[in-house]
User: Fold this.
Amino acid sequence: MATIITVSLLIISLPFFSISSAKISGQPGINYGQLGNNLPPPKTSINLIKSLKAKRVKIYDTNPLILKSLENTNLQVSIMVPNELVSKISTNQTLSDQWVQSNVAPFYHKTLIRYLLVGNELISSTSPDTWHHIVPTMQRIKTSLTTFRLHKVKVGTPCAMDVLESSFPPSNGTFRNDIAFRVMKPMLKFLSKTKSFFFLDVYPFFAWSSDPKNIDLNYALFESKTITVTDSGTGLVYHNLFDQMVDAVYFAMNRIGYPDIRIFIAETGWPNGGNLDQIGANIHNAATYNRNFVKKVTKKPTVGTPARPGWSLPSFIFALYNENLKPGLGTERHFGLLYPNGSGIYEIDLSGKTPESEFPALPPAEDYKGKAWCVVAEGANVSLVAAALSYACSQGNGTCDPIQRGQLCFEPNSVVGHANYAFSSYWAQFRSIGGTCNFNGLAEATSKDPSYGSCKFPSVIL
Assistant:
């Protein structure tokens, strides 16, 4: 969660209306990511999306095979301008026109393209040099859509929670100083003028897992019966972490003069698995979170959030599949509702009509407890591993002594062999002060002891 700071609470000029956004369906959609080398073809994937009873689907590009497969399906579709084109389009209306003409216009009349997102978490994933291009690109894309009479498409851009400087209590929600007036205010002005949405990625899992001692797991899973959080600035009472996070953004928008822009949940979800040392990432918690999220957003009458009661929250759940090529920690590859073979990881009905009692029992929510070691991840680039090995050995006092020539763990004399020891030794030495078994995705935790002969690898206790 964002750093907690104390700020004076502004008078909320338009506080907590109960305006119903009845025309906007709360039935969730699904994010259809494609970062896997074992995923079904688009036609099969679209049929699976329909079987989940999704209202809409978001893709991270303009894949023509997918857009063609979405023809006449009645699924609302969100497409995306790739991050690398944003700076170029921002200063070139002709390029914008050509992009829309090639990627939107040919599909618009048979595929229900309703949302066009400019980049993906640009403020989080690109340098500040790109940020001032975001709104001009949104404006040029909107102009192009008008030129080609594609009037039903809303333009936006997804933001992560790190656009906030302060998020707790929610009434302290404040955009970061470096972007509040330079990026966010012009963006909100555009969204307000075009009656579009503020697209927001909300992951209670990451907020909870970063501070599990102080954030109750049931509160993060929409399961809390007794634990509540009261906002000292407004008196609003929160029953789950998701509402808390969303309202922090509503207050941040209000703080710079835009209280009425609707939030669209561009991504939310919970991982069904992860690295051995990633707590809370399991099938039980993933099913619990996503089923409860569906219940919340499909409830009649519309619930909204404490600061915006009655406001519907259109959304996309992340993601359709477990995607094995996603970089980062193991959780990144385990957000799917489905395995790549198309079978369900757990049962879910995105229409919200299936009672919980009709779903099969879930496996228990268990985190691994015991010894663990840190080794080179399968398929890791050996050149990058060599650099990570050098880093690990340069950090500690005697971290890599046993893999020096003539010592017990020198053989086998290979980059991977030495890195397995170095990564485990580094993790054992530095885990208590924040060291992780990651090395930019090159390492993973294992419960299988890699020790051999007289070479004993250091371990940690999870």
Summary: The chain has a mean pLDDT of 92. The chain is about 30% helix and 15% strand.
